[in-house]
Amino acid sequence: FTRQNPGAKAALLSGPPGIGKSSAAALMARCLNFEVLELNASDARSKKTLETKLQDALGTRVFSFTKPKRRVIVMDEVDGMSSGDRGGAAQLAAMIKTTRTPIICICNDRDKASIRSLANHCFDLKFQRPMKPQICKRMLQVCKLEGLKVEENAMLELIESVGNDIRQ
Question: Residue 60 gets which letter from DSSP?
Fold first, then answer.
């Protein structure tokens, strides 16, 4: 992946579907002991809805008997926010400027105008679809661990048939 804007308060993970953007966000949060509040941005397209859903979560900590956990907000499908142009993407950018709670935005279509504007406020991580040999090597390792015998040619065919979509 490539990255830009290293001093930002939020991150934007972009790239084609099925390559692990959401999994990467969840793994990063878990490794850093953050509680994840996950929202689908296509359900919070308008400015008012976004304010309502996020206001309570921003700047708060999660109570724990051992150590207070910080919260991270994962906004999935932010490229769906601009449907109907209801001000959601602009509101999200404004919230990023003022929040102390980390926000991870995830999208498939990085080239939308609203996303380009949002990216100006984010650490921009552009994911790329992995190559067939990379997927094949890992899948064959998993098969071996599971006790399955799969020929490399068959695995390559399977990977191609699902368009290199790791989820499939």
Answer: -
Kind and range of the H or E element at 74?
strand 69-76
User: First vs last Cα of the chain: how many Å apart?
Assistant: 21
Kindly report each contact of residues 91-96 with a partner whose C-beta sits within 8 Å and lies 24 or more positions away, as own/partner.
91/47, 91/50, 91/51, 92/41, 92/50, 92/118, 93/117, 93/118, 93/120, 93/121, 95/50, 95/54, 95/58, 96/8, 96/9, 96/10, 96/121, 96/122
Query: How confident is the prediction along the chain (168 residues), in pLDDT tens digits per residue?
Result: 556 777 788 999 999 988 889 999 999 999 999 989 888 866 655 566 666 666 656 655 455 556 667 889 999 988 887 555 467 778 888 888 888 889 999 999 888 887 888 888 899 899 998 899 999 999 999 999 999 999 999 999 999 999 888 888
Contacts of 88 (CB under 8 A, 6+ apart): 41, 44, 45, 46, 47, 49, 50, 81, 82
